[in-house]
Amino acid sequence: QVQLVQSGAEVKKPGASVKVSCKASGYIFTNYDINWVRQAPGQGLEWMGWMDPRSGNTGFAQNFQGRVTMTKNTSITTAYMELSSLRSEDTAVYYCARGLSIAGRQPPRHWGQGTLVTVSS
Amino acid sequence: EIVLTQSPGTLSLSPGERVTLSCRASQSFSTRYLAWHQQKPGQAPRLLIYGTSSRATDIPDRFSGSGSGTDFTLTISRLEPEDFAVYYCQKYGSSGTFGQGTKVEIK
């Protein structure tokens, strides 16, 4: 079955960077986009961007342009999201999610368990 | 970027009632790119509807989606106890965004 297992919780200081990993299994890693979505405490969902694991192509929400990087290591079927210049407002649960189908840019269908990133001085 | 506005913010309803949730976009886009997700406390979201009206695998047929242009709707024909949750519309594709969510709570 499809599984996405994310790295553990992180505590970072303002101005630092965080890198969250997402280990995929149960399907062909390069066939489906990985989306990243975050959720601040008590708030709604915020779409961050997508990555095509085959090509490495990415697309980001305007809010994150210049501050987010999405990469992958195909040999270990793992996707990564790195967010830089962290501020307190970046405190959130970060989710990776696999797209619905092989066609690119599909809605998230399978979700990781989430990674809590806390930004605090 | 397209902005999605959901209404109402909260609905207080009883099991068995019919629910209609609204999602309005700041500009028109293809019905191919509208999805609905359900989220319960402490859980990751679950995809319900994609392409405006197609149900995802294992989603009961009491959930249906419709709409076009800038106005989209999620309908739950008869609320079951497990349907009390927060619902988000999402525009996906080369760029994406979520609405702010509608909470369906028990009256």
Descriptive overview:
The complex is a heterodimer of chains A (121) and B (107). Chain A has 121 residues and is mostly beta strands. In chain A, 0% of the residues lie in helices and 50% in strands. Chain A contains no helices and eleven strands. Chain A has strands spanning 3-6, 10-12, 18-25, 34-39, 45-51, 58-60, 68-73, 78-83, 92-99, 108-111, 115-119. In chain A, strands 2, 4, 5, 6, 9, 10 and 11 form a seven-stranded mixed beta sheet that branches. A four-stranded antiparallel beta sheet of chain A has the order 1-3-8-7, with no helix packed on it. Chain A is globular. In chain A, 40% of the residues are buried. The mean pLDDT of chain A is 97. Chain B is an all-beta fold. Helices cover 0% and strands 50% of the residues of chain B. Chain B has strands spanning 4-7, 10-13, 19-25, 34-39, 46-50, 54-55, 63-68, 71-76, 85-91, 97-98, 102-106. In chain B, strands 2, 4, 5, 6, 9, 10 and 11 form a seven-stranded mixed beta sheet that branches. A four-stranded antiparallel beta sheet of chain B has the order 1-3-8-7, with no helix packed on it. In chain B, strand 7 and strand 8 form a beta hairpin. Chain B is globular and about 35 Å long. Classes of the chains: A mainly beta (121), B mainly beta (107).
